[in-house]
Amino acid sequence: MRKILPVLIIILFIAFASGEDTNQTVDTITLEDLIKENDYVLSLNPQNLTALQYRALIYYNEEKYPEAINTSEQCLKIDPTCSFAWHIIGSSWGYLNQPDKAVEAFQNVVTLNPDDPIQYNVQGVALSRTGKFTEAIQAFQKATNLNSGYAAAWNNMGVTYFNMKEYDKANSAFDKAISLKPDEPEFYANKGYSYLQKGDYNGALGVAKTARNMDLTCVPAWFVSGEAQYHNRNWKEAFYSFDGGFNALAKNDLWYYQGSKKTRITKDMQPMDSYYVAIASNVRFTGIWERTTVINYKIKRYQETIDLYDQILAITPDYGEGWKKKGDSAIKIKRIESARDSYKRALDLLPNDPEVLSSYGYTTGLLGDYLEAMKYINKALELEPGYTRGYLYKGLIFSFYGQREDALSALQKGLETGGEKSELYDALANVQFKNGDTIGGVISTVRSLIGF
């Protein structure tokens, strides 16, 4: 399960100046209107660099990134030193999940603007996204040398050190960013991620709380808190923290825009950015939804666990572990057909997994197919002879079909493996009571309660 990561921050505002606020009615201006007007200007002078830059900006703001790139390239034919065009190209490739091409464009930007710390910061983010961490650190150092008060660059340096697993250096950079801009909640959340990696869960909880006190919609702060509570085995607190993060994700326009709404989810997608893409694919690469299902399962909210796995599997239907865990949850609330169907899907993806084989066999047996049940349970035990749950399920199926002596034998073999003692003794007690062995049943019941 992959972890979510800290946030690389680029703050780029491209806006138009507005006139005095009045009550007069203004007609909505569409993309077609803007392009039509721009076409007219360019018809008078196709080499009008300002008009081409404006056109590139129109496309960029409308998220038509290929068109923004093409128009910017027309600008560069007129003026190869047009920094604005290179910037639009780099940012567009970034949004198109092409970080290597973004790096090339931003390299041209810093070459044209060697004294601008903002450009080095942007270049550093692009390098960090491509895994060129050493070069990214050098870019952030140039940015902070030019402007030692550049908080965003210090934060991004910390994120890059984090990705390099140099957590002490990461914390130092985050501390610098916080000292320069103490009202930025994401900086505290990022430091929380570093605390998590160092095993300082109380420290992580502290900075996450600080971030949330500043902004309740700070998504990563909730998730940092959830991870820390999870590691401290405070299941309910962890669940509510993760739940708070998902609620904040829906209510925080910036995070929602950057994350789940605007990025395509595909099974082959690789995590390009530290947080935005992770949240966008918030099943496979963050583990947050799955971590929530684990907590739901531990606090016996089995239906909620199934509901979450339905969401996960709708996006990643080839996720075998998800089908298996959905089946486990369905068994807990005695939805045996649903469990059998889930294990069947898991079996297609994990054909040699003893857990899946035995679980599919068990549910198939409960639904009336004894031979099919034994076929799959025995195959699981052939693959892993010491698999305790395989013997448990074998004993339960024997008992279900009235083969009590065979059930006792299977359950005793399971006890010899050393695991699942509570469930094995509970099953053993049921068989013993059915056989009239009241004393043995009572002893096994007590053992099922104490676990040995």
From TrEMBL:
TPR repeats lie at residues 49-82, 83-116, 117-150, 151-184, 320-353, 354-387. It comes from the Archaea. The keyword Membrane does not apply. Transmembrane segments: none annotated. InterPro entries: TPR-like_helical_dom_sf (IPR011990), TPR_rpt (IPR019734), Ycf3/AcsC/BcsC/TPR_MFPF (IPR051685). The keyword Repeat applies. Keywords: Repeat, TPR repeat. Coiled coil: none annotated. This is Tetratricopeptide TPR_2. It comes from Methanospirillum hungatei JF-1 (strain ATCC 27890 / DSM 864 / NBRC 100397 / JF-1).
